[in-house]
Each structure stands twice: as structure tokens, then as C-alpha cells.
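Before relying on records like the one below, remember that each one covers exactly one chain. Contacts with other chains, cofactors or solvent are not represented anywhere in the record.
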Amino acid sequence: MTIESQASLVDNFQGKPRVFVLTDIGNEPDDQMSLTRFLLYSDDFETEGLVAVTSTWQKEKVSPEIIQKVLSNYGRIRANLVKHAAGFPPLEELSRLVKAGQPVYGMAAVGQAQTSPGARLLIEAVDRQDPRPLYVIVWGGANTLAEALWEVREKRSSEEVKAFVSQMRVYAISDQDDAGPWIRIEFPDLFYIVSPSTQDGGQYSSATWTGISGDKYYRNAPGADFTTVSNKWLDEHVRSKGSLGETYPQYLFIMEGDTPTFLGLIRNGLASYRNPGWGGWGGRYILRQPAGESRPIWTQGGDSFPGSPNSRDTVIGVDGQRYTSDQATIWRWRKAFQHDFSARMDWTLNEFKDANHNPVVVVNGDSSKEPIWIDAKIGTPVTLNALGTSDPDGHQVKCHWWYYEEAASAISKPVQPEDILGERGEDELDVLPKVEIEGSAGEQAKVIPQSAGLAHVILTVEDDGKPSLTSYRRIILRIGN
């Protein structure tokens, strides 16, 4: 399979995303912070594992008891959460999913005489008969995943191993032990999102995931608004709000470095978990082979030359200037995902009538949260409308239709040397598709395709509640001649 065809794959399935968490909780506060937010969105996923693991920062112990502590506080407020949305799992159900990985560092945990409870639970989850893939999100070391893969390969046929591997989608926060690189070499078909790194954190500052809040610590996100990720804002909007707020500590370095792994799984209408190249709250990635890697993975980088795949978004910053970076693929959504977090914290305390809820978006009569695919032709207008869009709290909403140009770059073809040397005219370059949008600020918009390709149009709907909340719909135009 070519890189282009792999990059074009879309995970189409019905129901909630299945998710399995590997966390080095106890190492420093950010995992506990991420788990707090994760539980507030546990109605949006089907959680299948919460496993405490080691990392380069915590090599000789695992801390499942901290997971249980956070779950205990979640249990106190779950009855209030279900007043606002169905699907929040009972405490007892989540508690049964808390397991431990091996309390040793990295690959030393792999091939042991006895498989860890965490690895056994992961194998069970992958083996479950379910058409949906399992999203394995790695907040610490990846050795529990390596342990599971090693055992399966030892005991099963090559075809069975292939089927097992095909069920997983891994999103790791850099490489926090030596297991990640081993996995990518030994299991080349495994779907893997990561910014490859040494295990000492020395390359974190360039990683996409730091766009969650790394502006000041890593000094890598000029243009981003730091307000909603400051400790001052978090004190007011998160930590002050009941028992779950009590489990949300002050950060030491940055807020919630692990959270991007599941932000894209939240069913807000962007549906970016269908393909990492589409972009959404968890960032945007491309399929390429970085130096030192044995095969293409979902990662960052790429050439900035027009038409070449790259992982950077160009965004208007808080100062009105244009900024282009990998981190911008996350911080561009920061106000929306932080306001959403604050509103969910309100759900833990307030009745439905006293809290804000997301607008319900309808596009061309479709009220689901799935992408809308439309066949289009160059020069022929496509009419889109948001008739029927509403707000459950009666707030006013404003619509904004915009072209997410970079979302198509993950599947664009690399520019050839002869293009750069000028043997083809500029107009002949394999550039991204272009569209023009008329009526971008209204309930109805007209999209006029200018060139062929896949074009992602996003409808953003924001209410005027406190805090303001945003919902989305993604419309994908398949533009032909």
C-alpha cells in the first residue's frame, strides 16, 4: 500500500470510539489533570482500560491507586453529570478497568514469565469482537503495549498477529521509554501517531502536542493566547468546582501535556479521529517516514513547498498576525476546548437549566455529528445550509463557514524535483484544492470549487452562553473536473 493510499484511509464505524489509556500517573501532575478532563468526556467514548505504567520519569513504580482516587471523586459527581448527558459510565465499571503494568522501565518489562494485568486487559480489549478500532493512548511509556504485542506474537500465527495489530490506533505523547521505537520496528503495520524522540524530553519543545499549553514553558507558540491555560484561569474555572476540581492539581511544567491524545476523540462534529490528517482539537499529522524510523508513521514535518504534504497550520494569532506551526494545529482551538472544559465542570455541580450545553448543528438536514461527503465539480456552486441548528439552552448562535485548506495536505502528492526546477508551469503544480465561500457568516453558504481534490469545509457554530460553547460539522467536497 502506498503512503498516499494509507493517508487516505478513513475509519468509518458506528458508535463511540473505543479507548484504552496507558498513563504514568504519579510522575508529575499533568496525568492527573488529563484524567480529570478525560472523565468529564467519558460519555463520548467507550473506555476499555485505565492502566498505570512506568516512564523515563518514573522507572520503578506504577500508581493505579491515584487513578482510583480520581475515579472516587468522579463517582461523587456522576449523578449530576447524567442530568446533562447520557452515557457517563458508573464508577464501578471504570474501577474494574484500572490495572497495573510492570513496575520496571521500558523493554525490561517485555518477555517476562508473567504478563502484567495491564497487558492482559489490553489483549482482551483488542480481541473483543467489535468492528470499531481500539484507540490506545499513551501518556507515559509504551512498554505495556510492547508486552501485549510480544505475547501475541509468541503465541499466535502471523495472520492472527496481523489481525490483532490492525485493530489498534496508537497515539503516543513522544517516546517516554525505549518501547515505542521497538514497537515501530517490530510491528511495521501498526497505526502509530507520535513525534519520535529520545527518552529524556529534550525534543519535547518541537512536538505538536505541546500546542495544548506549552507557550511559556517551551516558548514555542507565538501568537497563542495563554489566558485559558494559565493557573489563574484554571483556579477559577476548574479547581474551584467541587470534588472533581479538587483532583486537578497545579501544573509544574505545562497543563495536560497528554490531553491531545483524546481531544480528537471528543464527538464535537470535527470527527478528526477518522483520519489524523483531517485536523481537530488533538492536532493534525501527516503520514511520513522521519529520519531514524524504519517506515512511515503519522507524525509531523514535511516540505512547505506548495503542494507538498506538511503538518503545519497557518492561524491568525491573538495579535492579529499570521503564524505557521505544528503547535498551531492545537492552539487554534484552545478557546473552544477550554470553554468546553469549564462548562463540563459546571455540569458536575449545577442543574441542567443552570449550565451551558453545546449547540446542535444541522447541515443540509443532517443532524448527526458525522462528516458530510459531497461530490462537486469545478465551477459549480454547492449550497450548504444550517437550517434547524439550535441551542438547547435557548442561546443565540452564530455560524461561520470556513475552508480548512491544510486538512487536504495529508493526502496531497509530494512535489517532484522537476516541478521545483521549473520544467512545469506554476499553474500545473499539484497544489491543494481551492474553494471560494460566499456567505461565510450566515446560516446559508455557497461553496464554489476552484480546483480538483478533497476540500474540507468546516461549519463552526458558537453560542453566546457563559462560557460560550462551540460545535462543528465537517463537510468534505470530492471535487472533480
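The longest strand covers residues 453-463.
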